[in-house]
Amino acid sequence: MNRALRPVITLSLLTLSITLQAAPAVSTGQGGAVATISEQASRAAIAILDQGGNAIDAAVAAAATLGVTDPFSCGIGGGGFMLIYSADDDKVISIDHRETAPAYFHPGIFQQNGEAMAWEEVVPTGISVGVPGTVLGWQEALGRYGTMSLEQTLAPAIEVAEQGFTVTDNFHRIAQKNEHKFARFEPSRALYLQNDKALPVGSHFSNPDLAATYRAIAKGGAQAFYEGDIARDIVAAVNQPPVVDGVSVLSATMTLNDLKDYEVRLRQPIHSTYRGYDVYGMAPPSSGGIAIAQALNLLETRDLSAASRTEAEHLYLEASRLAFADRNAYVADTEFTDVPIAGLLSKEYAKHRAPLLEARAAGQRGPGDPFAYQDDPSVPLRPAAAGLMQESAHTTHLAVSDRHGNVVAYTFTIEDWGGSGIVVPGRGFLLNNELTDFDFSAPHPNVAEAFKRPRSSMSPTIVLRDGKPAFTIGSPGGSTIITTVLQTMVNHIDLGMSLADALAAPRMSQRNGDTTLVETLLGFPGSEQARALEALGHRFVETDQIGAANGIAFHADGSVTAVSEPRRHGVGTALVQQQ
Ligand code: GLU
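# glutamic acid complex -> structure
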């Protein structure tokens, strides 16, 4: 329908250069910088910086391009969190454009006969789809902190969508995992499959429908997405998903008002300190900023410089465990739930919990009681221990900085790889399944409610030293995002690794479980490092790879180092502007 399969012949400098050059995963220089998982997206950001745009303009350009090249992880059918360090204002602010539950939502929506429905059953349906926030998020970011228009910043992405690109291993691999999901919906099948199979590696993929949708947004602004024909198409796709013959699917009752009424939130980030650094992370509805700050507060009670690598990593795993015990119990959208943020972030509370960092792996822990550490003790909740709910592990994170000192850490997503699997007919983008990030069983602070934003783990992070950016980091990976960002920070700050080494090191994800997730790709299982931790009681479960992080380090001489994944997720691209 709207896929063009043709030989790789393109006149575009942007796309041509991609096929000729290997992607650098580390770049150092004096100009603006970018790190993303997509070569085209990183080049789009540099093109915008070279045209005089700032980091916010470049971040929107990179994000829009990622929506073309990595459509299974992110896009305008989803939402995200953009953290911005504004050099002029000398402050960090965040733009929350998380997907929101429509008006018809209620706590029992994911239950049948009093039982929580299976996560897999809900994902490829209309009821998993939240009102998308990305387009309004971009518009707000540009309007408040950017210098360019949507028209200018979407231009590189429109070019890539129209001219297309060669299907990579990674694109193929992810589409392959989603063959069954995409085959349920006519437009998804037509766009991403060939004879119901993922497009082969080396074939050419373009997305003229998405190019046209971007053009409409470039011309009409966010209003063109949230009202009018595109909005009508979104609502129709959610309420009567465009299924192939023989497939029946739960449908929803999203309305045009749900789209028209969507609002972005400007939020104060979570601020904490760690060994002389100022750490800024994402506030609720993400749990990322709080959990990372809590784990760092716990680690700060110990002298890691005197610890062996094994001891330091053991403490990292146990601090993460305790942070997750509280995260699972307390954190949700603060517009609907009283989250004891001050107590959770209190250094005194961390000291109170720190004795639980024992010499051996502890096994699952219950949540602590942060209420005694709140200035406002009126918060009445004492939630019981909650388990880690099922969550997907696929989104994308990008980092951008500019010559003026602005920094953007931006994580955005459509939740599962391929989201709900529903491509909006004729529009070229997938709708999210973000509402499956709600807890399915009530009562819980993160239960589904109308107009609520589901709890996230996305953790765009900006770290300052003496008031100036020191580094920025973020990753995809569902709830492993929190551990990836935390571990990378510990590697960098406590274990003395460069940001590049910190990001390349094997990852371990302990989220208050009996076992810790580790990466096969990086050869961690069976390694000396693994055996030393096993001797302390840690038990490992393997997964192929965890996360796909991107970051930028800022050096005292004014130079910057952009760092992207050297091995995971098909290898990312880090670029610095040429002088
Ligand atoms: N839904 C996840 C979250 O908001 C993001 C998906 C992912 O990282 O894979 O935390």
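# post-check
The radius of gyration is 22 Å.
The domain at 25-55+82-94+264-374+395-413+458-579 is CATH 3.60.20.40 (Glutamine Phosphoribosylpyrophosphate, subunit 1, domain 1).
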